[in-house]
Specification:
436 residues; alpha/beta; Aspartate Aminotransferase, domain 2; Aspartate Aminotransferase, domain 1; 2 domains; 4-stranded antiparallel beta sheet; 16 helices; globular
């Protein structure tokens, strides 16, 4: 079914603007990080696991969700549940204004030029696939080259491999050094007249490395090459300004950003999105349909076929309100202090090796313990109520680069504490004792 016309949704922009003005502010910006105050916003953190207080150190996989976001999703389901863009009745109008209000919140959060440049998707994997199908399959041909980095998540590797196999294109890789930093001199050597796209992760989920994406974008643009940034880990930790970065695409996942699963965004420059083909065909993404021809809707509807994850995307808007209500600089300082403290404590333990020691890092620590498999580490820590991630983190090429099968990974958010870092260190010492 076609999207409702602008004439039908009378004054929806004014409704959205009013919703933004009334958005709740949950944490005052006081410059000093009150972690205990923040923890009370996250109900999951108050529970016990295996008789121990939960220590949640897996936010790089999925960040926890504050109560205000849970409440906003419940309000939609309990009071506003209806389909968006399709009805003139009261509930549909309310749902649409809430849904589009989230899009405007996203626009402001990443400083996009217009809300239409922010396409809702279920997460980074779907978002990167949207760009691969919509841009890559249309503009990349046999003999062309795509550049990605050696530290990419599988979601920014596999789609491009699929495209290269289909088109006869070539995938090239920016190498990294032993600290887990990209070798930008080698990157520039890879760029040539055949390069048609660069895809790079903002922050490595496996190493914590913060990549200099603004510099990477500028270098690629000198050669006329567009750049896609995987911002799954970037958006939760950094202030994102897509106009300042000048990236052509920026992809983020809601569930990394303290929002529900099933939410996410593809930011794309209008001039590129307008030229791209739709990713999925069906209802809502069309202007007209006959058996002879279909014409597509404008942005962002062209890429949002079918009924979207309405509650999840409204929850993403609420999560952005929550983040905007805090002093994010203080939150980042707190995370960096935890990173430095936990790194120093882990380095004190004989047999522990930290994988990824870049000069610019987010609060992610991947490590190995001599002769102990990461899955065993994770299992014993779970018995102590400590949640970490163990495995290859959907970044098997990273593991191959460091010649290891897997790592244990502790990822800290602004709701974690030094005491939790101490518990992690004590539990790792216990792991070593058990295996001795």
């Amino acid at each position: 079914m076609a999207a409702v016309t602008e004439q039908t949704l009378v004054d929806v922009e004014n409704i959205v603007e009013a919703a933004l003005v009334d958005a709740p502010v949950n944490i005052s910006s006081v410059g000093v990080w009150d972690v205990e105050r923040v923890r009370r916003d996250f109900p999951v953190l108050s529970q016990t696991v295996n008789g121990k207080p939960l220590v949640y150190l897996d936010s790089a996989a999925s960040a926890q969700v504050p109560q205000v976001v849970i409440d906003r999703g419940s309000k939609y389901l309990g009071e506003e549940h209806s389909n968006v863009h399709r009805g003139v009745h009261y509930l549909s109008q309310r749902a649409t204004s809430a849904y589009e209000g989230s899009r405007e919140r996203v626009r402001r959060f990443i400083n996009a030029r217009e809300a239409a440049e922010c396409v809702f998707v279920r997460g980074c994997t779907e978002g990167i696939n949207l760009v691969m199908h919509g841009y890559g399959r249309k503009f990349i041909v046999e003999g062309d080259e795509i550049i990605i980095s050696a530290m990419e998540h599988h979601s920014n590797i596999v789609p491009w491999q699929m495209l290269c196999e289909e088109k006869g294109a070539r995938l090239r890789v920016i190498p990294m050094n032993d600290q887990g930093e990209l070798q930008l001199d080698e990157f520039e050597k890879l760029l040539n007249e055949r390069t048609k796209l660069v895809g790079v992760i903002h922050i490595s989920n496996a190493l914590g490395t913060i990549n200099p994406v603004k510099e990477i974008v500028a270098t690629a643009h000198k050669h006329g090459v567009p750049v896609l940034v995987d911002g799954a880990q970037g958006a939760p930790h950094l202030n994102i300004d897509v106009q300042d970065l000048d990236c052509d695409f920026y992809i983020l996942s809601g569930h990394k950003l303290f929002a529900p699963t099933g939410s996410g965004v593809v930011y794309g420059k209008r001039e590129l999105l307008d030229r791209m083909n739709p990713f999925i065909g069906g209802g809502s993404m069309i202007r007209s349909v006959t058996f002879e021809k279909t014409t597509y809707a404008g942005l962002p509807d062209k890429f949002e076929a079918g009924t979207p994850a309405i509650a999840s995307q409204i929850g993403l808007g609420a999560a952005i309100d929550y983040l905007n209500g805090m002093d994010r600089a203080a939150a980042l300082r707190h995370e960096q202090e935890l990173l430095e403290y936990a790194t120093a404590r882990l380095n004190e333990i004989e047999g522990v090796t930290i994988i990824g020691t870049a000069g610019e890092k987010a609060s992610v620590i991947s490590f190995t313990v001599q002769d102990i498999h990461p899955h065993d580490i994770g299992t014993i820590l779970d018995a102590e109520g400590i949640a970490i991630r163990a495995g290859h983190h959907c970044a098997q090429p990273v593991m191959q680069r460091f010649q290891i099968p897997a790592t244990a990974r502790a990822s800290f958010a602004f709701y974690n504490t030094r005491e939790e870092a101490d518990k992690l260190v004590s539990a790792i010492r216990r792991v070593i004792e058990v295996f001795k």
